[in-house]
Every structure is written in structure tokens, then in C-alpha cells.
Design a protein that fits this description.
Shape: elongated
Oligomer: single chain
Radius of gyration: 27 Å
Strand content: under 5%
Length: 70
Amino acid sequence: MGLSTSHILLLILVAFLIFGAGKLPQLMSDFAKGLKAFKKGLNDEEPSPKTIVSSKKLSKASSKKSKKKS
């Protein structure tokens, strides 16, 4: 159930009617710049190492701290 050629042409016609022929290329250019910036941001960001702390380790650590304070 994809888009056929007639559906795409109808969407383009509606876009021209709403935005006008002069504004549409500028909108597409801004959209492309935003998409490129988004992709660049995804590639630049390095995943941080995640440490998993189990609840047992967490409770042992907190109980050690409370014993030291007493």
C-alpha cells in the first residue's frame, strides 16, 4: 500500500497550492540542512559507557557508609 505516482503528484500539487512555487524550494533547502545537521550530530556523538549497578551492590555500599558514620 505504497504511494503511487498519482498520489505523489497530488501531494506536490497541494504543496504548491499551500506554500506557493517560490517558497517551496526554500522550505526543502531548510529541511535538507536540518536533516544533514541531525545526521552529523548522530555521527559526532560517542556512546558513553554505561555501568550497571545491581541493587545488592548498591545496598551493600549504602550500608557500609551508614556503619562508618555510627
